[in-house]
Design brief:
The complex is a heterodimer. Chain A is of the alpha/beta class. Chain A contains 25 helices and 24 strands. The chains are: A alpha/beta, B mainly alpha. At the A-B interface, strand 18, helix 16, helix 18 and helix 19 of A face helix 1 and helix 7 of B.
Chain lengths: ~700, ~300
């Protein structure tokens, strides 16, 4: 598929881009050189602020007003892109080069039917008339394997699911058979099941279309799956480049290695190993670092690294590393330490008991049952992981427990006290005991309050500390417990990085010795290199203080690493619940099985797993399917019994139970069988050399 | 004080190395720089400043006593002696125009302040608590907004009688629902932020959340609204004086002078022209400031 002998479809040479901010130029891209061959998928990996999107926008010539190209060239199909005039660009964009944006829902015009939007591309670039363009649009939707394209054409964007949105976006981008397709974080923010669907599609389309692809992502595993070659961007510099599977298997730059090591791997557990975060944080935009940009965070940095910028060293097989000591990278010892045992062993007493919790959101026209009768228990000192796709009711459940919304029905007790009341009706004692850490630290900390005030206020109300000097002392103590330097107490949240902000939010939640902390996706808004540090911190404070977590996450690897017990939610119901080990091993609910198999992980590179696919989108919670709510998408669908009868709870070992018509013994056989080698492999299998001729 | 840019960062723990901590001072400076580079804003500020200085120090600046009647020199056209001419009673128009700034620049800011206070209070409460109170209050606001502003003002003032204090009260009352609307919509989006949820979870009172948590975060739209309102307040105050429902004779108030000069429009157009120009420059200048603020805030 990828032929190395053709001319490069896209060539970027020594590109340097600055943004003007208040008259001062800040360099965001520094001497970037890369090329994408015709028909090749090139993955550009990096964390937020590293310049990924700037590269994409430079390629499309969509750079914002205040951006300046200082030097360098971009060639597209042999022509100088930076010299092209507006008229040429307008012709090229959409017809020869196309882009798919991160948030598909906002990239579509909400007031136009899907068919008309796709047809517009044909009318614009091919000069077709209305009917012909509409027909072409239908044919295109068929190519992106959308179910029932005829119907989708007549729908408005809001009537489509996330996966369908992205299919439509890709259909629009591919409709003119472009030579270059830029995908900017096409799966970020999508559920794992949808992500798998979109990645499958990209894989499949590569055989139908011969566009070169620039695939931008922060997720190494995703890039490893989709791309032949990949480059790692750090602070505007391409620090490593090479064939993606080699690059991920044997990184030659300490940063790439650090990124690979700081995500929890399959089978990693908190009681065995701590996560291995990258120390420090990204240099601020436009920082002037004389030597290697990564030197301040690098475990093998020496004197030379701080003064002499590393040139792109060729390390064989078309690989490049900007590290003076790239030969030593493979020998960097893992920074993982053994996990320390919890200082307060859990006594196994039940802390939180939830019985038949129902949360119904009523509006004048409809009522939606976001949580439909959920029961579970959280023991003292335990981490209870809650997983499920977006819309499954996880956050609604957490908001019920926190008291931010009222409970429609059911009983919730914390140590015997009634918890199913709104927060303003709770007494100080109960408020202190239940605290919450939110997903996005940008909005969960008041930007106008100093960190000192944020912590001080929490201490005053939750810990009841009246004296100012005592509050100051305890604030410092809290800050140091989340490893926040005292000098940060002075500042306000906007001056802090995401990771530091989340530390403040954690400190705030722990101000009054809570018993239960509700963590709603606490790391999903953070960069990969910071996630590990925050997860370690969350575990440390949890074991030190013996609190329980209700830990909501869509990242199953994190939940598997962190949780003692796991609950899986689907359409407002708990379908699978039990000890972490049991829930993630067969037999388990077919939905759990599907979620696990939809994950794109680095391990897939070495150890390809079989995949069970679930199709379609989650049905609307306002009209849940009859019988088993999962029957519309279930890979183990039996027939009428699933459609008509609500499934019973099946008891597995060690208190593990799941809601399904298939008993454990039988289900174990079925699910074990899938793991066998004879099974259908997803086109997604990693691109091992001998496997090149796929699909 | 919070400037820490020069401090050498020592790596203490994971990702604690971010060295740049722009302080409050720096952000203020950034905003100031942005506004100082806007010509619109600067022009507006210069003109407003000019009128504020006049309102404060007209007594030492005016060439003649604005109240000094000189029957021998009535209705003289602009000359070297009387730059803006004299009025029907022979009073110097230039002196009267300069002195006239003080009444407008007392009534309009006070009325605006009153309206802002009322509007912020109503907007915060209705936006934060929502529910039935919100429904009722907002319907009342809608009903009030259906009437032209000036009609309400005229109605109220003809009942209360014309006086400076009453004009301020009326402007305040009339502006309250308008401001409430702006504030409410800002509160509505702000209250969904999680820092408000966090405050509720630690048991803060509604009053604390409204005033200490939400209010500081909606100051930008409030500042913009206040300048826009100020422009309208100046205009309203002048209109009311013109209709002789506000300031009474012999004050050199612009609206009032225009109203008196109207009779002599044919014979002595300068009696109307100069106070009208003064009023126009002030209203335009305040709007220029509002535009500049809006732009700076949006950036």
């Amino acid at each position: 598929m990828s032929d190395a002998n053709g001319l490069a479809a896209v060539g970027i040479e020594e590109l340097t881009i600055s943004y003007l901010r208040r008259g001062r130029p800040l360099r965001v891209i520094e001497e970037l050189t890369l090329s994408i061959r015709p028909g090749e998928a090139y993955g550009l990996v990096g964390e937020s602020g590293c310049g990924k999107s700037t590269v994409a926008m430079a390629l499309m010539r969509y750079l914002p007003q205040n951006a300046v190209v200082n030097s360098g060239r971009i060639t597209f199909a042999g022509e100088d892109l930076l010299r092209a005039d507006e008229a040429t660009l307008r012709r090229w964009r959409g017809s020869r080069m196309a882009m798919v944006y991160q948030d598909p829902a906002s990239a579509l015009n909400p007031s136009m039917r899907v068919g008309a939007q796709i047809a517009e591309v044909y009318r614009q670039h091919r000069g077709m008339d209305k009917t012909a363009a509409f027909e072409e649009a239908g044919a295109m939707l068929e190519k992106v394997r959308i179910t029932d394209p005829g119907k989708v054409l007549r729908r408005y964007p809001h009537e489509l699911s996330g996966g369908q949105h992205q299919r439509v976006m890709i259909a629009m981008a591919l409709s003119t058979d472009p030579e270059l397709l830029v995908l900017d974080e096409p799966t970020t923010g999508l559920d794992a099941t949808v992500e798998a669907e979109v990645l499958d599609l990209v894989e499949q389309l590569r055989s139908d279309f011969d566009a070169s692809i620039l695939f931008i992502s922060h997720n190494l595993a995703v890039v490893g799956r989709v791309c032949e070659r990949a480059g790692v961007l750090y602070a505007g510099r391409l620090i490593e480049e090479g064939p993606s599977d080699e690059l991920l298997r044997q990184p030659r730059h300490p940063y790439t290695l650090g990124l690979l090591r700081c995500v929890p791997r399959r089978g990693m557990r908190k009681d065995v190993l701590r996560l291995d975060p990258i120390p420090g944080s990204l240099p601020p935009l436009g920082a002037n670092l004389p030597g290697c940009v990564y030197a301040p965070r690098c475990p093998i940095a020496r004197e030379r690294c701080h003064v002499e910028p590393p040139p792109p060293y060729g390390t064989g097989n078309g690989r490049i590393s900007r590290c003076h000591y790239h030969n030593e990278v493979s020998e960097i010892p893992p920074g993982e330490q053994e996990a320390k045992p919890p200082s307060l062993p859990s006594d196994g007493a039940v802390l939180l008991r939830v019985e038949d919790l129902v949360k119904t959101y009523e509006s004048s026209r409809s009522s939606v049952q976001a949580v439909a009768g959920v029961s579970f228990e959280v023991r003292r000192g335990e981490v209870f992981g809650l997983v499920g796709e977006s819309g499954s009711g996880k956050t609604s459940l957490a908001r019920c427990l926190s008291g931010l919304v009222d409970v429609s029905a059911g009983d919730v007790t914390l140590e015997g006290f009634k918890l199913s009341v709104r927060e303003h009706r709770r007494n100080a004692e109960l408020r202190r005991k239940v605290q919450m850490i939110f997903q996005n630290p940008d909005t969960s900390l008041n930007p106008r309050h100093s960190i000192r005030r944020i912590l001080g206020r929490a201490l005053r109300l939750l810990a009841g500390v009246k004296s100012g000097s005592e509050r100051e002392r305890l604030s410092l103590e809290l800050a140091s417990s989340v490893r926040l330097e005292p000098r940060y107490l002075e500042v306000r949240p906007p001056a802090l990085s995401g990771g530091l902000k989340q530390r403040v939010a954690i400190a705030r939640a722990f101000a009054g010795e809570p018993a239960l902390v509700l963590c709603d996706e606490p790391v999903s808004a953070l960069d990969v290199s910071v996630q590990a540090a925050i997860l370690n911190l969350l575990l440390d404070v949890q074991t030190d203080r013996g609190v329980s977590y209700l830990f909501i996450s869509h990242d199953l690897n994190i939940v598997r690493y962190l949780a003692d017990s796991i609950g899986v939610m689907y359409l407002g119901q708990l379908v699978d619940v039990g000890p972490a080990g049991a829930v993630f091993e067969p037999p388990h609910h077919p939905y759990t099985e599907a979620l696990l198999s939809a994950m794109t992980t680095l391990e897939d590179l070495d150890d390809p797993r079989p995949h069970v696919k679930i199709g379609g989108a989650m049905p609307s919670p306002s009209e849940p399917p009859s019988g088993c709510r999962f029957h519309t998408r279930c890979p183990r669908f039996l027939g009428d019994v699933c459609r008509e009868e609500a499934p019973p709870w099946q008891q597995d070992v060690e208190g593990h139970q799941y809601r399904c018509h298939i008993p454990p013994g039988e289900l174990r056989e079925l699910q074990r069988a899938t793991e066998g080698p004879s099974n259908e492999r997803r086109g997604a299998a990693p691109r091992l050399p001998e496997e090149n001729g796929k699909q | 004080m919070t400037e820490r840019r020069g401090a050498s960062a020592t790596v203490v723990d994971a990702e604690a190395a971010s060295a740049e901590l722009p302080g409050r001072l720096e952000r203020f400076r950034d905003l100031a720089v942005a506004m100082a580079s806007s010509k619109t804003f600067l022009t507006g500020v210069a003109i407003v400043l000019f009128w504020v200085l006049m309102a404060l120090f007209w007594e030492v600046i005016v060439p003649y006593d604005p109240q000094a009647v000189d029957p021998t020199a009535s209705l003289t056209p602009p000359s070297a002696e009387h730059w803006f001419g004299t009025d029907n009673l022979g009073r110097d128009v230039l002196s009267r125009v300069l002195a006239g700034a003080s009444s407008v620049l007392t009534i309009a800011p006070l009325g605006t302040a009153l309206g802002m206070l009322g509007g912020i209070a109503v907007g915060l409460v209705t936006g934060y608590y929502r529910g039935r109170v919100d429904d009722v209050v907002m319907r009342v606001v809608d009903a009030l907004l259906a009437f032209p502003l000036i009609i309400i003002a005229v109605l109220v003032l003809s009942v209360l009688g014309p006086s400076k204090v009453n004009v301020i009260l009326v402007i305040g009352v009339v502006f309250t629902p308008i401001v409430a609307r702006t504030v409410r919509s800002a509160v509505l989006s702000e209250r969904e932020r999680e820092y408000v949820a966090a405050a509720r979870l630690r048991g803060e009172s509604g009053l604390y959340i409204m005033i200490s948590e939400i209010l500081p975060n909606i100051l930008s739209p409030i500042a913009v609204e206040a300048t826009i309102r100020l422009g309208y307040a100046i205009f309203t105050s002048a209109t009311l004086s013109f209709l002789s429902l506000g300031i009474q004779e012999p004050s050199p108030d612009w609206g009032l002078t225009i109203s008196i000069g109207r009779v002599y429009l044919q014979a002595a157009p300068w009696m109307v022209l100069f106070p009208a120009l003064a009023l126009a420059t002030l209203v335009v200048a305040v709007n220029l400031v509002a535009d500049g603020l809006l732009q700076a805030v949006e950036e």
